[in-house]
Every structure is written in C-alpha cells, then in structure tokens.
Description:
27% helix; 3 domains; alpha+beta; 11 helices; 7-stranded mixed beta sheet; 5-stranded parallel beta sheet; binds flavin-adenine dinucleotide; single chain
Amino acid sequence: MKIRISQIDLPPGYTPEQLAKAAAKKVRCQPGDLKGLQVVRRSIDARGRSPRMTVMAEADLSGKLRNGLRDVEKAKAVEPVVRPVLDHFSGLRPVVVGAGPAGLMAAFALAEAGMKPLLIERGEAAAPRAKRVESFWKDGTLNVESNVLYGEGGAGLFSDGKLTSRSKDRPRVRRLLEILVECGASHDILIDAEPHIGSDILEELVPALRNRIVELGGEVRFGARLDRIEIENGALRGVVISGEEIRTDTCVLATGHSARDIYAMLSEQGITLEAKGFAVGVRLEIPQHRIDTAQWGGSFPSLGKASFRLTRREEENARSCYTFCMCPGGLVMCCASSEGMMTTNGMSLSKRDKPMGNAAFLVPVFPNDFPSTDVLAGIEFQKTLEAAAFAAGGSDYSLPAQRLVDFLEGTDSDIPAERSCSMARPAQLRGLLPEFVEHTLRSAVPKMLGSMRGVQLDEALLYASETRSSSPVRIVRGEDGQSVGARGLYPCGEGAGYAGGIVSSGIDGLRLAESIISRH
Ligand SMILES: Cc1cc2nc3c(=O)[nH]c(=O)nc-3n(C[C@H](O)[C@H](O)[C@H](O)COP(=O)(O)OP(=O)(O)OC[C@H]3O[C@@H](n4cnc5c(N)ncnc54)[C@H](O)[C@@H]3O)c2cc1C
C-alpha cells in the first residue's frame, strides 16, 4: 500500500538513512518496510532555536498500516496534469508575441498540441542578449530592443528565478515545473516549498525550452517586433511583425508590462484597457549573513541562504509597505528599455552566494495617484519616476544610491564599497518618489528591519527606484481569455494585468493555450 507520511522532522542536510529512520518511526515499522521512500515536499522550519527541515514523503508499505497513526495516511492519487493534443489541426497558425515566461509556456503548449505556433520576440536569443546586458551593466550602453527586460526569457531571465506563487491552480503549477525539469531544471523545484532556479541556470534552460518548441513544430523568430494588429468586425485578422503582414486569427499577446508602445498601439486601436494600481519604492540591500542570523540563528550551508518577507500595515499618514522579490545572496541591478529612464530590480545566481541580500520595499499606488484619468496615466507616472532616477544617477544608467540612515535623516555621505551594484552613485533619494511614498518608507522601513534580530540599520543601502512591480494597465479580457472586443486576441501574462511573477505568468500562458486548443 502506498502511504504518505507528513511532518517528518529532520536536521538540515539530513542523510537518506536519517530520513528512512524518522519516517519508519512515524509509521511504527522498520525502515526496510518502507520501499521506494521518496520526498514529495520539503520546507524549512525556522521557528525553533535552530532551523529544522519538515519533510513529506511517500513509500510503499509492506505489511498492514496501523490504526491511529499521526501524520500517516494512504497516499492520494496525484491530480493528472492536462496536456491537450489535437488529432488534426489545419487552421491558421497561432502567433505568440513575446518570449517571456507567459509566451514561452503558451507557445510550448500550442506546439505540444500540434498547432505549430509562430513565436516572435523583439529582443535577442538568451546568449547574445546576456552579453549585451553584461556590457550595459559595465558601461551603460543601452540597446532599446534587446536588454534586461526584452529578449528571450523576458524580464525573468536576469532574475532570482524564484518559482514561488500564490496560485491555487496546483495542476498547472505542477505542469509548468515539470516542463522546466524536462528542459534541465533540478528535480528539487518539484519538492521545495520555495523553489528557485537562478539566472545562470535560466540562461541554459530557456534556450532548451525554445528548442523543444521548435522540435514540436513551432517556429521562433528573434529581432521580430509586433508593430500592429489588424482587427475587422471585432475579430483578429492578422498581425504586422517588423513590417511583414502575417494572417492569423489567433494571437497570444504576452509582451510584458515594459512594452509601453504596445499599450499605446492597443489604445489607438480601440482595444479595451483599464488603469490599475501597482506599487513603487526602493530596493534595499543588507549583508546576507545578517539575514541568515536573523532567520536561522546563523549560516547553514545545506539550507542555502535565508530570505525574508516583511509587511507593515497602513498607519495614520502612512500607507502599507511590503517587501517584494527578495534575492538572497544576490545582486541589485539597473533595468532599462528606453533611453533616459531606468528602474532597479534584483537577481541572483543558482548558488545565491554573493555577500549581500536585497529586496524591494514597496508602497501601493492607485489610479487616483496618477497625473490624469487617462487609461495610460500610470505609465506616465512611472516614466516621471524613472526619468528622475536616471538624472539622479548621473544620466549614465548608474543607480542613485543612499545609505538608509542618510535617507532617514536627509543627510549626504558616501555609499559603502561593499555593495552588490558597482554602477551606483551616491545621491539624495529624497524627491525621487512621491512624498507619500517617501514618508511611508521613512516610517515603515526601520520598523520592518527592526523586526529582524541583529539587522543593523546603518548597514542598509537603498537604490532608487522600483517602479515596475506589476502592470499599470489591464488589457481587459473575457472568461475565455479573449480581449473584450477583439476575438482571437489573447492578452497574456504580466503585461495583460492578470499575472505577476514567473510562475503566474507562465501558467497564464498554459491556461490561454488550453482555451485556444479547446476552440479547435
Ligand atoms: C530583474 C527582475 C527580477 C525578477 N525576479 C523574479 C523572480 O525571482 N521570480 C518571479 O516570479 N518573478 C521575477 N520577476 C518578475 C518576472 O520576471 C515577470 O513577472 C515575468 O517575466 C513576466 O512574464 P511575461 O512573460 O508576462 O512578460 P515578460 O517576461 O516581460 O516578457 C515579455 C516579452 O515580450 C517581448 N516583447 C515586448 N514587446 C514586444 C513586441 N512588440 N514584439 C515582440 N516581442 C515583444 C519582450 O521583449 C519580452 O521578452 C523579475 C523581474 C525582473 C525585471
């Protein structure tokens, strides 16, 4: 009989023998009675004096299962992962725009179903893109079509590769993770409660995913930009890609939320858009060993690096504040996709072995904070903040940076040599964000950091500004995923305003592909 054993308590870096012994103790049998013992979930429990691992495992039990055992039950059948395939497809091939997580997953699922999609991407393939981005970070030479935000892998390529998501759509999350494992990701992402991949691994994994799309009959074009969509009588008739007209009745629009030209084009073409709230703030870094000590009481190499998630409720005269996209042992970097504007973000490599950890500290903003009631006013709001950060950093894509204590006091001093971002300049961050955001940060950040034992405020460095936490615009779509008023157009992923993060954007791609497949 296959059984599931939960809440197995183990030390960090436990051995297979320790696991077998602890599991058998829970089942009140001998380790040898548990055949094919396999971990299905593991998480770090940091509540005690030193961290422990909490493991869930499955095994075949030879012999009878005793009654009344705690945390032991018959294993449930895993919900099957849907991978639809068409018997025959003879329609116009679907076009997927954007090779970020959403577009890649949509194209993969359409290719797997036999629909031979065309995937187009304005930026370069991962390898040349990585070289170009490397030189941008060294000397500030920006290519507006292929950069940290545009190119194969999308905004997620240079990231921490965190695969956490609050989605309740477990079967599709499972399908996405399985596709990543098929393309070379570690099997660990299927069992870790907080899986992550790292930018170095993503650079290999994303081209493998693209190759799978091609093997399955899809076509992928780089340096190919969607300029226009053609709508007739409320339905998609074609797309114009870098001047070439392509007939299609299905387009997955997965262009991310940095493609501001796409929102302008959609607005001109009368596609229904809606302004939405997002969040802005700063990126903060502190020594990683302080985070490990605060969370775990010290460093535990077998656990990797500790992370944190902090929130602060709204108070009188201050909005709520929360941390976002924490990158343990990571790097802070500049992101830009248009001249004279920039934002900041964080990334890490698979080992997360850099000396600093960073996270965004964000304050929510809403359409009534924007300069006008225009549906694209949130983009204007972002642009103003990004231009101010560019100027404050010296107009060469260096990030303006300031010690937290100086930001709080409104004083100037140097910035520490021990920091993750070399292209950063000392600057006064006051005045770069709206006053209500700065006021909230001044009030909330010290209290939030104060909740982490041992973290020193005078070691914290701020970089400005975080402006692209999520989309400022929603491309309104119906239940079946099609744009309201343009049948055959499927706004997808983060840029559509229905997802945020690698996993939720990727599963949005899978979901829309399934909706397209079901029409045939
Ligand atoms: C530095 C950084 C670190 C991040 N870290 C994490 C993390 O650790 N975990 C996490 O979950 N999320 C992270 N995120 C967020 C995550 O990357 C995004 O949520 C996700 O990439 C959104 O996926 P998407 O496919 O919807 O859009 P995108 O990834 O933005 O992809 C859109 C693609 O469309 C292309 N495109 C745009 N316009 C056109 C056009 N006209 N024609 C053709 N192609 C076009 C772009 O070049 C781009 O490649 C990070 C983001 C950044 C910037």
